[in-house]
Design a protein that fits this description.
By secondary structure, the protein is of the alpha/beta class. Helices cover 52% and strands 17% of the residues. The model has no long low-confidence stretch (mean pLDDT 91). It comes from Streptomyces triculaminicus.
């Protein structure tokens, strides 16, 4: 049945759409559109359903990405990807964990839609240039050139990070304790000198509209937020986008989500999402899958 084939490959299709769009909501819309197209096809006439579905989802995601690009340029404050709650096993796949991390998703935002599609399909999912050419309607030679350009761009801007693990969760736990107790020196020791704090409120709730850079300024910011909200907020440690994270709940409602980028034992980035439009889907654990392909290796 057509539904069975779509359900079987849904984790892979969602992962591709999410990495191309940076939004779980947009990815779900793409999957819905793709399913409608798939349900209109006689599955007995399709020799390779997975390849066919990947092609459909890629084309729909490309169309969707081109449509939302303009809206993101008008976004109030800093735009961050819509966070997705991931299972612990995502962190066991280093390529997948890095590809859905906040830092990588922000780098992917700097690519044009075609470059993003080519990079995601080739370097993350391991599809050949020929397979990608068939998916996006370009020649194989053109795809090869786009892949080289996109890879060079991404590698020049990627930030090293350590995926969610017992060690990184312990660092986050120490950070949360230091902010709650006001232990400034412990906090400073946990933050890298060039740490960056990014906040996404979407213009709908209070959030810093510009990046906060440097250990001193970030420490002051997080201590100030903690003092203002500690009495009414409960904190939970979780995993989002393959990264250690913390959920801040007020009266039982998710009010703030922070994902932590950690490298060499120090926090190098904090990604705080407060935009309620992005938080209301953040409770669901998303199964992610790369489909068994081997990624490209330099």
């Amino acid at each position: 049945m057509a539904e069975d084939a779509f359900t079987e490959h849904r984790p892979l299709l969602f992962t591709i759409a999410y990495e191309m769009l940076g939004s779980a909501g947009d990815a779900e819309d793409v999957l819905q559109e793709s399913y409608l197209r798939w349900s209109a096809v006689d599955p007995d006439t399709v020799e390779h359903p997975r390849a066919y579905l990947v092609r459909v989802v890629t084309r729909q995601a490309l169309n969707h990405l081109r449509a939302v690009k303009a809206r993101r340029e008008e976004y109030v404050g800093t735009w961050l990807p819509e966070p997705i709650r991931t299972a612990p096993d995502v962190s066991e796949d280093a390529v997948l964990a890095e590809s859905v991390s906040m830092a990588m998703m922000l780098v992917l935002e700097t690519l044009n839609p075609t470059e993003r599609a080519v990079f995601v399909l080739h370097d993350v999912f391991g599809y050949s240039h020929g397979e990608i050419a068939a998916s996006i309607g370009k020649t194989e030679v053109t795809v090869r050139q786009i892949a080289h350009r996109a890879r060079r761009h991404v590698h020049a801007r990627r930030r090293r990070f350590e995926p969610d693990s017992e060690a990184t969760r312990a660092i986050v736990q120490r950070f949360l304790l230091a902010t709650a107790t006001g232990e400034v020196q412990v906090l400073m020791d946990l933050l890298a000198p060039d740490v960056v704090q990014l906040s996404d409120g979407g213009g709908k709730v209070v959030a810093a509209r510009r990046p906060i850079i440097g250990r001193d300024d970030v420490a002051r910011f997080v201590l100030g937020v903690t003092r203002a909200t500690a009495a009414t907020t409960r904190v939970e440690q979780v995993t989002y986008n393959g990264m250690p994270a913390a959920r801040f709940l007020t009266d039982g409602e998710l009010d703030w989500l922070v994902a932590f980028e950690i490298h060499d034992g120090r926090i190098t980035g904090l990604y705080g999402i407060r935009n309620p439009d992005k938080l209301h889907r953040a409770e669901t654990v998303r199964p992610l899958d790369r489909g068994g392909h081997q990624p490209w290796k330099p």
